[in-house]
Write a structure and sequence with these properties.
This protein has two domains: 109 residues, ACT domain (Alpha-Beta Plaits, 2-Layer Sandwich), CATH 3.30.70; 199 residues, Vaccinia Virus protein VP39 (Rossmann fold). 30% of the residues lie in helices and 32% in strands. It contains nine helices and 16 strands. A seven-stranded mixed β-sheet has the order 12-11-10-13-14-16-15, with helices on both faces. Strands 1-2-6-3-5-4 form a six-stranded mixed β-sheet. The chain has a three-stranded mixed β-sheet with strand order 7-8-9. A hairpin with a 2-residue loop joins strand 15 and strand 16. It is globular and about 55 Å long.
């Protein structure tokens, strides 16, 4: 791969020695802390599998000033050029003069990067997400989700996943903890399968989890085994829920960006049983109004809306 370059006023990017045979390519830059919030939504869109941020308080980051943050995103080799252009444009729009370093990461190095930086997470009221390599003992009243993300999105670290997990937990808590008992679930764009796994652990009978990315399917299959739910969740490699067998579900989940949630509206709503719930996440705050209006126009009732920083979730219910 020849050196990749993207430039803008005060922004340059270069890649030396990156190989198209790499599993992943890292784009890394230094930002003012004040600029992170402005560019972070784009970082997650470019790198849905996760982003890395380090500030001066992190171990091994003693080279950073108090007002600096080091950010890294991870893309596939074929996406490097377009990601560089988009990132450099966003930095320029934010008034940031920065250099973007590009580095190839082989598959074994990718796994090492995440194992170094991902720790157990407490989410919602009773959820605990644990890396497969850092499992702790069972705690009474706690729901443990054991995840090895591989190259898939969905560790609980990002706000969109947290919002979806918390919404599913609340649905499960309804009726004294029986809210999902007997419910069949459809999880569209499952990633690591963390959301489908939670739903069945909270009482759903079965789940169908769809995914277009083959690496994510591989990671999801491992996570089903880690959580002993392989017999209750079916993974389907498909890009459109409309292509599934014609069946309906009591809970439909889609943690996908708004530009996908909007064209998928009819396909998602058509999968809902009477009185079924739809959990949407991956919505930027500035896009909530558009997404809400689109789904309300289908006759759904809004149950709740969640917010975490610049991200939002929406929960709807189909009429009886």
């Amino acid at each position: 791969m020849s050196p990749a370059r993207a430039e803008g006023p005060g922004v340059t990017a270069g890649a030396e020695g990156a190989s198209v045979t790499a599993a992943t390519v890292e784009l890394r830059t230094l930002l003012p802390v004040a600029a992170l919030a402005e560019v972070e939504p784009l970082l997650w869109l470019l790198s849905p599998g996760g982003i890395l941020t380090e500030d001066a308080g992190c171990l091994g980051a003693g080279d950073l000033a108090p007002d600096q943050v080091r950010v890294a995103i991870y893309v596939q080799p074929a996406e490097v050029a377009s990601a560089l252009v988009a990132l450099c444009r966003a930095l320029t729009d934010a008034g940031v003069a920065a250099e973007v370093a590009v580095r190839a990461i082989e598959r074994e190095d990718w796994n090492r990067v995440w194992k170094e930086h991902w720790k157990p997470l407490a989410i919602g009221l009773h959820l605990r997400v644990e890396p497969a390599w850092l499992q702790g003992p069972d705690v009474p009243g706690e729901v443990r989700l054991v995840i090895d993300p591989g190259l898939a999105f969905g560790t609980g670290a990002h706000e969109t996943t947290r919002l979806a997990l918390e919404a599913i937990e609340r649905l499960g808590a309804a009726g004294g903890g029986t809210g999902l008992r007997g419910v069949r679930v459809l999880d569209v764009g499952t990633g690591s399968a963390i959301l489908a796994i939670l739903a069945v652990k909270l009482g759903a009978t079965t789940a169908v989890a769809t995914e277009v990315d083959t690496d994510a399917i591989e990671a999801a299959r491992l996570n089903l085994d880690l959580n002993d739910v392989s017999d209750r969740i079916v993974l389907v490699h498909v890009d459109d829920p409309a292509r599934l067998a014609p069946e309906r579900f009591g809970l439909v989940i889609a943690n996908i960006i708004s530009s996908v949630l909007l064209p998928l509206r009819d396909a998602l709503v058509d999968r809902l049983e009477l009185g079924g719930h739809l959990v949407l996440s991956g919505i930027l705050q500035r896009e909530v109004g558009e997404v809400r209006a689109a789904y309300l126009a289908c006759g759904l009732a809004e149950v709740e809306a969640g917010q975490a920083n610049e991200w939002a979730s929406l929960v709807f219910r189909a009429p009886l």
